[in-house]
Amino acid sequence: MTYKELDLVLGEVHAACLMGMEQVIAADCNLQAAEATARELGSGHILVTQQFAKAMIEHNIKGGSIVNISSIVAKMNNIGQANYAATKAGIISFTEVAAKEFGKFGIRVNAIMPGYINTPMSEVVPEKIKEQIVVCCPMGRMGEPTEVAEVIAFLASDKSSYVNGAAIEVTGGLK
């Protein structure tokens, strides 16, 4: 692939793995835990966005799109997820700033905030909790990965050519 073929950068280097993340209650949050979570979940977005934006600018690529993956937890602030929620909220702020800075070069930067999606990450959530999520969700179910992918594809397409700096919820209406 050459830079000229690059239209979309998905600003997600990896998915968060709840199996490896301990619950972090805000009152018990220590600086090392916060720094580790920020490094694990946030730094990749920054580095990928920087590198691909620089490459698009250097090669005068207009109409490029960078899509960062945040989480609805950035807004819902679940108990026991202080570090995760703060980091995912930071991704939204970073996306908004990057959109302002790179927009003048014809590069759009947006984020999506998936809700509870049927993925390996959600498999570790206890069944009782998933049932509560489904009851609270206006759509009455958890989302599918393809539904998230469709939103990413839209943000990567020319159909979203005036969408810049947005954080789009893919939650089935769960708030």
Measure the end-to-end span.
40 Å
Shape: globular
Radius of gyration: 17 Å
> For the residues shown, what is the average pLDDT?
83
**Helix and strand sequence:** EHHEHHEHHE
Percent helix among the residues?
40-55%
Q: Major sheet: size, sense and barrel closure?
A: 4 strands, parallel
Give the C-level CATH assignment.
Alpha Beta
Order of strands side by side in the largest beta sheet? Answer: 1-2-3-4
Instruction: Give me the CATH fold name.
Output: Rossmann fold
How many structural units, i.e. domains?
1
For the record, the CATH architecture stands as 3-Layer(aba) Sandwich
How many distinct beta strands? 4
Strand content: 5-15%
CATH superfamily: NAD(P)-binding Rossmann-like Domain
Structural class: alpha/beta
Structure annotation, total helices = 6
* Uncertain runs: 11-21
Description:
This protein has 175 residues and is α/β, with parallel strands linked by helices. It has a single domain (3-170), classed as NAD(P)-binding Rossmann-like Domain (Rossmann fold). It is 43% helix and 12% strand. It has helices at residues 31-41, 43-58, 73-76, 82-103, 127-136, 145-156, and strands at residues 8-10, 64-69, 107-114, 167-170. It has a four-stranded parallel β-sheet, with helices on both faces. Helix 1 crosses helix 4 and helix 2 (43-58) packs parallel to helix 4 (82-103). The longest helix has 22 residues, at 82-103.
